[in-house]
């Protein structure tokens, strides 16, 4: 389980200016929304970890969730995926309500999850890890394309999944949802603990799939990395959205945000 | 909150049962005048295993056997019967000594049982013997094998009707050794009964000029005997003795039959009942020798009774069914003779009595230790059954005196 | 020496049977996280069904090897649908208690219907007798039971490693939530897998019928040994169950040969040692506490 539960009690600094201004002159583009989360609250038992969160992602758009550990970012992703069910509020995908849908139904509806631990199966080979999920969309990458894009996965296709390096596992986790053809990716800290060259590669992948019209909801603490791939940013603190910035604003205030995030 | 409610319920239940026990106690041992029945009727308590391993051996069908005795008694004496109102009460002791103990208490005190019959399982049997002694009420054990009933734990009110482990050892080990089966290996289950059987069998083999190469203890219970059997075959003995009972015995015999020893070594079984043969199939036990206290198809007299029994139960009687009949019948005869069901008077009538009936041949209720001695039989399992339950060839009748030996010196009647 | 070979072969023969018997327990624990206490009772039902099929419908051993697992699969599906699934979300202890209670019900029901002294069953024609090489003897049936068990274990192993079904089952075993998030309806697989595990218990029962006492209680002691097997092998590990099955068979045989009274204790000493050195068993995944 993530550390969201324990961290809710830490007091956070109030955000710099503009704090609490919910809908600034919208940094959002005009495109139709793919994922829409509105008024979402979530609990772990008695502990409330998200309060009235509203965010959205459009096709071909990369949106980040930025915040300290325990701000509720992972819980938000898990709620969208349907793995965390103790929630209130609404989550819709392409306009249809997800509340009654199980995690597997959501995955088949086009949501692809790349968990922060990469979620690679030790008991499956690399190839099996790729082939396990069903193909859910016509735009899905073929196995050939996956191997062409990630030659290392081809080389190691018969290795147990967890024998790969951290970076390779991250590639595998992302390749897996691409092969599914997911239309909305939930990426939980893909750059965490990886060498800069690999982080750069991940950035390339994100830009590649963005070009295909895939929406990405990216949890990221690496502000510099986030600013190279994302269109918009939501700042989460104590389970609430405290800022909503376009990428230009985000870049302009990078230093200030870094201090705020304590990074 | 919930736990408090449960506690309350338990407390109420405990209080209620305490109160009931007190009432029962008050109404208990009030022996009436010596010429009359206590509380105007005779109550026979049947306490045995009605759901476990001895259910088929004795169990509910022993009630049928007792009712047959009651019917025969009434038919014999008609209007002159002293006991006109005879009731049978039954209870399941589940082969547990503590349950047997409390059920016996309940039978004697609350259900006003004048006598308790059967009680297989040695621990349960001994618990009831203590109750009989304390309550000064009659108790005839049939199903249990322990020699303690007529030894260290013997008492004035307790009788042991059918067999004991020493009889099995003399019958099986003694007879087979005398007839040439002189070298033995014994496998026994490692608990009180098995250890006891191993000791008495080894003693009998040695006494009759044989040798026991090895005695091997097996865990109890156990279902994999293949390796034990291999080990028991080491040293090429003439006889392998299995002291197992119930499911363990069946496992042992099945696996013995699949071993290379089958046909080369004689298999002798310490404690076996006709119900074991029935459940396993006669061909699996074919040729196995054991001591039986009674066999339904031994002679015309037994067969006639077995036919009556079959009409009522649709099955053939085990020795325990016949012994329950015999014990109930002889008890009622004693009541008739004494004109009362007063326990001390009945004990006087039973002690030393010589009996020949459907179960007891050359029988005698030995005064010294209350062992009811009688002829027993060395049986060999047939290779095929001419009809269902017709499984045994009686090879030898072992006379009562030889089978039972001298009275147990450990017994001092009090 | 020939004595040692004799005991080794007997240990291996018993081990193959233990492996098959423990396999279903491992499969069910692996996928559902349920410690199925009723495995012993289902093994007993398998043996009782064989005996009843033979006595009442004249269905022999070979047919029973097919029919009984199918019936037990149905029984497992019912068990999972009606009972087990409602407790899957709760602490595993609840399903352990449920299956424990179910064991009592099954055992008592069999006692009521078929009595307690057991049911007859013979070694099937052609599998009687012994094979002897020098002074080493093994019963033909024991060899058959061991080989049959190994074949079934290998088949189950191939099913799990070489097929898509196996891939899904392995994934669901390793991380059920993650597997759901990858679009696989894990719940859909839970019922047949449970049924499959119960069918394996029933199959072990059929295999036991010719060589063991068929009584309502026959599974009560056996389940304890099976628990030792899966704990030694690593809960939920198929390979572990198979290896530990053979290991326990051998240890038991040597125990009987050289220290008969301690034959069964030796198994649990082995279990204790394994757990001390590797708490998650020989092939168990290290759990993050």
What is the CATH first-level class name of the largest domain in chain B?
Alpha Beta
- Would you list the SSEs of chain C in sequence order as H and E? HHHHEEHHHHHHH
| Main sheet: strand order of chain B | 2-1-3-4-5
Sequence stretches where pLDDT stays below 50 over 5 or more residues of chain B = 1-35
| Protein chains sharing the most extensive interface | B-C, 42 and 44 residues
Structural class by sheet pairing and helices of chain B: alpha/beta
The ordered H/E elements of chain B are HEHEHEHEEHEHEHEHEHHEHHHEEEEEH
CATH topology of the largest domain in chain B: Rossmann fold
Tell me about the biggest sheet of chain C? 2 strands, antiparallel
Uncertain segments of chain C: none
**Helix proportion of residues of chain B, in percent?**
40-55%
| Count of discrete structural domains of chain C | 1
Number of strands of chain B: 15
Count of individual helical segments of chain B = 14
Q: How much of the polypeptide of chain C forms β-strand, as a percent range? A: under 5%
List the keywords.
heterotrimer, B: 414 residues, alpha/beta, Rossmann fold, 2 domains, 5-stranded parallel sheet, 14 helices, C: 289 residues, mainly alpha, two-stranded antiparallel sheet, 73% helix, globular
């Amino acid at each position: 389980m993530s550390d969201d539960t324990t961290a809710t009690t830490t007091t956070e600094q109030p955000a710099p200016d503009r704090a609490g201004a919910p809908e600034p002159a919208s940094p959002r583009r005009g495109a139709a929304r793919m994922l829409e989360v509105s008024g979402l609250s979530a609990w772990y038992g008695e502990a409330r970890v998200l309060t009235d969160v509203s965010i959205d992602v459009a096709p071909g758009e990369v949106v980040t969730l930025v915040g300290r550990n325990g701000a509720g970012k992972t819980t938000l992703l898990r709620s969208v995926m349907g793995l965390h069910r103790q929630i209130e509020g609404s989550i819709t995908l392409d306009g249809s309500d997800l509340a009654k849908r199980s995690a597997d139904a959501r995955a088949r509806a086009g949501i692809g999850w790349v968990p922060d631990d990469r979620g690679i199966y030790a008991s499956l080979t690399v190839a099996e890890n790729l082939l396990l999920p069903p193909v859910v969309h016509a735009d899905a990458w073929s196995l050939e394309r996956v191997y062409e894009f990630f030659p290392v996965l081809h080389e190691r296709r018969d290795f147990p999944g967890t024998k790969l390096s951290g970076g390779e596992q991250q590639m595998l986790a992302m390749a897996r949802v691409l092969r599914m053809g997911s239309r909305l990716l939930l990426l939980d800290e893909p750059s965490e603990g990886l060498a800069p060259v690999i982080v750069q590669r991940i950035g390339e992948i994100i830009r590649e799939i963005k070009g295909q019209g895939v929406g990405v909801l990216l949890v990221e603490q690496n502000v510099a990395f986030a600013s190279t791939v994302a269109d918009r940013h939501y700042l989460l603190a104590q389970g609430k959205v405290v800022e909503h910035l376009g990428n230009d604003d985000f870049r302009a205030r990078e230093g200030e945000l870094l201090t705020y995030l304590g990074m | 909150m919930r736990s408090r409610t449960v506690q309350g319920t338990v407390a109420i239940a405990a209080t209620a049962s305490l109160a009931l026990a007190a009432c029962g106690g008050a109404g208990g041992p009030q022996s009436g005048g010596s010429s009359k029945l206590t509380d105007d009727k005779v109550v026979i308590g049947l306490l045995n295993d009605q759901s476990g391993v001895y259910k088929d051996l004795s169990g509910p069908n022993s009630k049928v056997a007792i009712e047959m005795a009651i019917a025969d008694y009434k038919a014999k004496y008609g209007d002159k019967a002293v006991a006109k109102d005879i009731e049978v009460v039954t209870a399941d002791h589940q082969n547990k000594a503590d349950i047997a103990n409390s059920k016996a208490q309940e039978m004697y005190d609350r259900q006003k049982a004048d006598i308790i019959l059967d009680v297989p399982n040695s621990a349960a049997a001994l618990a009831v013997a203590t109750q009989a002694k304390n309550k000064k009420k009659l108790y005839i054990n049939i199903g249990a094998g322990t020699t303690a009933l007529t030894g260290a734990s013997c008492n004035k009110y307790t009788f042991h009707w059918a067999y004991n482990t020493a009889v099995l050892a003399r019958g099986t080990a003694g007879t087979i050794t005398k007839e040439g089966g002189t070298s033995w290996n014994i496998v026994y289950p490692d608990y009180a009964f098995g250890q006891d059987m191993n000791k008495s069998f080894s003693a009998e083999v040695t006494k009759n000029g044989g040798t026991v190469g090895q005695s091997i203890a097996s865990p109890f219970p156990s279902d994999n005997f293949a390796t034990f059997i291999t080990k028991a075959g080491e040293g090429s003995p003439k006889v392998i003795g299995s002291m197992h009972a119930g499911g363990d015995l069946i496992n042992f015999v099945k696996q013995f039959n699949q071993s290379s020893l089958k046909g080369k070594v004689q298999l002798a079984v310490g404690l076996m009942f006709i119900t074991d043969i029935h459940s396993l199939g006669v061909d699996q036990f074919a040729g196995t020798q054991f001591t039986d206290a009674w066999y339904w198809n031994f002679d015309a007299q037994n067969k006639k009774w077995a036919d009556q029994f079959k009409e009522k139960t649709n099955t053939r009687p085990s020795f325990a069914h016949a012994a329950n009949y015999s014990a109930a019948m002889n008890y009622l005869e004693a009541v008739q003779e004494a004109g009362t069901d007063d326990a001390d008077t009945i004990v006087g009538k039973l002690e030393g009595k010589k009996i020949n009936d459907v179960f007891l041949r050359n029988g005698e209720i030995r005064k010294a230790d209350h062992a009811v001695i009688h002829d027993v039989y060395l049986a060999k399992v047939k290779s095929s059954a001419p009809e269902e339950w017709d499984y045994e060839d009686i090879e030898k009748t072992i006379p009562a005196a030889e089978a039972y030996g001298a009275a147990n010196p450990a017994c001092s009647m009090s | 020496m020939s004595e040692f070979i004799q005991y080794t072969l007997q240990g291996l023969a018993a081990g193959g049977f233990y492996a098959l018997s423990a396999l279903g327990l491992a499969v069910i624990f692996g996928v559902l996280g349920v410690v199925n206490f009723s495995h012993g009772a289902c093994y007993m039902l398998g043996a009782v069904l064989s005996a009843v099929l033979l006595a009442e419908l004249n269905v022999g051993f070979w047919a029973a090897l097919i029919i009984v697992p199918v019936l037990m699969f149905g029984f497992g599906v019912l068990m999972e649908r009606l009972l087990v699934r409602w407790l899957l979300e709760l602490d595993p202890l609840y399903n352990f208690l449920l299956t424990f209670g179910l064991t009592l019900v099954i055992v008592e029901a069999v006692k009521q219907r078929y009595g307690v002294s057991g049911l007859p069953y013979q070694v099937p024609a052609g599998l009687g007798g012994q094979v002897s090489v020098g002074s080493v003897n093994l019963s033909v049936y024991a060899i058959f039971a061991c080989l049959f068990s190994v074949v079934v274990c290998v088949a189950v192993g191939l099913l799990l490693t070489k097929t898509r079904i196996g891939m899904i089952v392995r994934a669901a075993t390793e991380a059920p939530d993650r597997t759901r998030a990858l679009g696989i309806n894990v719940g859909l697989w839970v019922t047949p897998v449970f049924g499959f595990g119960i069918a394996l218990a029933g199959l072990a029962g059929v295999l036991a019928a010719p060589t063991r006492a068929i009584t309502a209680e026959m599974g009560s002691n056996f389940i304890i040994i099976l628990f030792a097997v899966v704990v030694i092998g690593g809960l939920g590990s198929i390979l572990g169950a198979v290896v530990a099955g053979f290991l326990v068979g051998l240890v038991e045989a040597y125990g009987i040969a050289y220290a008969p009274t301690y034959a069964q204790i030796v198994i649990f000493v082995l279990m204790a040692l394994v757990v001390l050195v590797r708490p998650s068993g020989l092939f168990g995944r290290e759990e993050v506490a």
